[in-house]
Every structure is written in C-alpha cells, then in structure tokens.
Design a protein that fits this description.
heterodimer, A: 9 helices, B: 247 residues, mainly alpha, Four Helix Bundle (Hemerythrin (Met), subunit A), 7 helices
Chain lengths: 223, 247
C-alpha cells in the first residue's frame, strides 16, 4: 500500500457501510429533491427567469443536503467511539482527512447524479452537459474538503446539528456563488468561456480550502 | 494584586473626554457637507468602526495562529477577546452603514461587495462565538475556535472577490453609490479625532475583555485545584487555595 492505500481503505470503509445500509445517500437524495419541490412553490418560475432562479435552487438543495450528509458521516464515527479507533490506526491525520473527504465526495456525487436529471425534468432547464458535470465535480470537491473539516469540529460540540451549518454555510458562500453562476451561464446555452471566471473562482476556493482543511485537520483531532 | 487599576481608570476617563470632544466636533464644530447633507456626519462614526472591524478579523487570525503554534493560553484569550469585540464592531459597522445608505443610496441594504463581505464575515465570527459556547471547555474548544478564526481570515479575500464578481454580473440590483462629496480640512480633522477616539475606546474594550477572560481562566484553575485539595481530604486553608489559583 502506498500513500493512497490507507486513504482508500478509510473511504472504502465508509462506502461499504453505506452500500449496506444506504443511510447517507438516501437521506441526501430525498432531502435535496424535497428542497427542489418546496422551492418550486416558493418561487414563481416563468420561462424567462427559470435559467436564473433554477441553478440557485439546485445548489441550495446540494448545499443543504451536503450539510446533512457531512454531519451523518461524522456522527457514525462518534457513536460508539469509532473515531477513537480510527485515530489509533497507524496513519497520519492527513490520511484520515483525505479518506473521510473522499467518502463524502463520492456520496454527494452519487446523489447529484440522480438530482441533476430530476432537476432538468422538473425545472425544464437542461443542465445535463459536460460543462455542468465538470462544474459540479469541482464545486462538490470544495464542499467535501471544507465540509469534512467543519463536520469533524462540529461533532465535538454540543448541539452539533446546528453547529455545522452555522460554521459551514457562510464559509462556502463564495463557492456557492461560483457554482450557481457557472451553472446558470451554461444552462443559458453558454460555452466554457462564458463560465470561465466562475470556474476559476471555484478552482481557487478548492485549492485554498483543500490545503487549509488538510493542515488544520491535525488540530481538530489532536488530543 | 496586579496594581494597574488607577492606570486603567485614567485611560477610561481619557476615553470619555476624547469621545465627548469627538461628539462635539461631529455634531457642532464640523460644517455640514453641501451635497450629502446632515447624514454625512454618520461617516465620522462609520469609517473608523468599519476599519476596526476589519482589523479585528486580522487580530483574531494572529491570536489563533500563534495559539496553535505556541499552545499558550494567553493567545487564545486574546483571539477570543478580539472575536467578541469584533462581532460587536461588525454589528455597529452594518448598522451605521445602513443608516448612511438609506438617505444616500435610497435603500437600507445593497449586495455590494464590501457590504456582503462584512455581513458574511460577521456570520463567520458569530459562528466562532457559538462554537466557543458549545465546544468542550479547555484546550480542545480553544483549538477548534482557532481553526474557525484562521479560516475566516483566509476566506475573507475570496468572499470579497466572489461578491465583487457577482455584483458585476448583476449590475441592475444596486441603487448605486450616490454623489461623492469632497472633504474640507475640518472634516479631515474631525475624522482623525474620531478615529483616535474610537480606536482608543476599542482598545480599552479589548484589554478589559482580555483581563476578564484571564480572570475566568484563573477561577477555573482555582476551582479545579480546590476540588483536588478537598478530594485529597486535606484541610485546605484559604491561603492554600489562593496560592494554587495564582497562575
């Protein structure tokens, strides 16, 4: 096993657990679909504004569902003190971080693979394109990197269910803005260049937060 | 006893006197700006407070980084004190900004990059204070808070950049900054004096909050030691407990 071996081992543990009980992906998916439906009632959609409003609703659904998924991913570690066992494993804290973040990334991508086609059908905004897939993958990468660090922190507090969204949502607001705008440009029929500056912003956020979260994760799990 | 109480009393009195002079300058001495009218006087409060709220973000980050590196509690107290006073001046920035915006831009709020960044940073530091309240006491809570403090500072330029880009993409949403006035020398002096008065008042609050935080830590240590002593069954005299609490 090289560097990637232990990371994959941790992610695989989460994926295997998930494959058996389907807790996280199902709750992510049902919740995000419900957000789409509720927003559909809250906002009057017209043929004109659906390209502007639609992507916003889509990413709000992803962000809210992401919060639930990240919380879940760490609560299962905290129950029965599985996290202590994980920390006793002879791997660095980086490996733990990368493994947990990879697991969350995969869960969110699976949920998005169902959510995006349903969104296209319900809102009549075609986002099933290569551009949107790249944007979604990049934004979800940043979500899971920042989210994993915050979820590991929130799980150590009282009222952890509220602590994660309160810390996480303001911090990821630039990423949310970038994802919404990039998706909207593409949904309107734009090309790569129309969304370029938003994709760049997503890339900056991803790099900065991947590094910062990995470095700061050491202090989260220090004992 | 740490005998600096007279020094701080003098500082407090000086703050009060300086603030009185500032109020006199702002409301009586300085002429009314020709284009913007009376409301322009809000600038003498708003600008210094807004600058301090930005400085507070940097202070929290410095305290947090130093705490994580050195593991000395005093840097955590400093970061905590800066965050708490920072949330206060941040709220005042948003409020005075709104008072200023209503007559000038004709709206209480606009999603301008500066306003958006201030608001989101304010939320991040409210989250910081909530985390401090909900996190376990001691080293772990301090470490978690330090991480939020650092992430807030890292995120600030990205938020500003994103909000700026977003505003350019939606130009129709803002009423637009109104007429820009020009400054006379009296206005410059008023702003300078106000800046000094507000920085001094803020520093006083920061120091005072830091001292309260330090006293809280001393009380925690004292009660910990006291319970240790009584657990051991020794007859703890008051002097012993006090000696144990002197950190």
């Amino acid at each position: 096993m090289g560097v990637l071996g232990p990371i994959w081992a941790i992610a695989r543990k989460d994926l295997l657990l998930e494959f058996r009980n389907r807790d996280i992906v199902v709750s992510l998916l049902v919740f995000s679909l419900l957000v789409l439906v509720i927003f559909n009632f809250a906002v009057e959609l017209t043929p004109v504004n659906r390209f502007v409003v639609g992507p916003g609703i889509l990413w709000v659904a992803v962000a809210f569902a992401g919060v639930i998924g990240m919380n879940r991913a760490f609560i299962i570690e905290k129950d029965r003190d599985a996290l202590d066992g994980l920390m006793l494993a002879p791997v660095s804290r980086d490996t733990l971080f990368f493994g947990k973040a990879l697991g969350s990334l995969v869960f969110m991508l699976i949920a998005e693979a169902v959510l995006f086609p349903v969104f296209t059908v319900l809102f009549d905004v075609d986002i099933l394109r290569v551009e949107t897939a790249v944007i979604a993958a990049m934004a979800t990468f940043g979500f899971s990197a920042a989210g994993t660090a915050f979820a590991a922190m929130a799980v150590n507090t009282r009222s952890r269910e509220i602590m994660l969204p309160v810390l996480f949502l303001p911090v990821i607001s630039p990423l949310l803005i970038a994802a919404v705008e990039a998706t909207a440009r593409v949904a309107e029929g734009g090309s790569w260049s129309d969304a370029a500056q938003w994709i760049q912003l997503t890339a900056v956020f991803d790099i900065v937060f991947f590094v910062a979260a990995a470095v700061l994760f050491h202090f989260v799990l220090e004992d | 006893m740490r005998g600096t109480v007279p020094g701080r009393s003098i500082w407090l009195a000086a703050n009060a006197a300086l603030m009185a002079i500032t109020l006199w300058m702002i409301f009586i001495w300085v002429p009314t700006e020709a284009n913007l009218g009376v409301i322009q006087r809000a600038l003498y409060f708003h600008v210094p407070i807004a600058i301090i709220s930005l400085v507070a973000v940097v202070l929290v980050a410095i305290g947090s980084v130093t705490y994580l590196v050195t593991n000395r509690a005093r840097w955590d107290w400093f970061a905590h004190a800066s965050a708490e006073t920072g949330v206060l001046v941040g709220a005042l920035t948003l409020i005075t900004g709104s008072i200023w915006a209503r007559p000038i831009w004709n709206v209480w709020w606009t999603w301008d990059a500066k306003l958006t960044t201030t608001l989101i940073l304010w939320f991040i530091f409210v989250g910081y204070l909530m985390l401090r309240a909900y996190a376990p006491a001691g080293g772990q809570g301090a470490r978690l808070a330090a991480i939020v403090g650092i992430i807030g500072a890292i995120d600030a330029p990205i938020i500003y950049f994103a909000a700026d880009l977003w505003r350019t993409a939606h130009p129709g949403r803002i009423a637009g900054p109104g007429a820009e006035g020009s400054m006379t020398s009296e206005m410059g002096w008023t702003l300078l004096v106000s800046m000094i008065a507000i920085v001094s008042a803020y520093s006083y609050m920061l120091v005072e909050r830091y001292r309260v935080r330090r006293a809280e830590a001393a009380v925690e240590a004292l009660s910990r030691d006291a319970s240790l002593i009584s657990a051991r069954g020794a007859s703890a005299s008051r002097a012993d407990v006090l000696a144990a609490g002197r950190v």
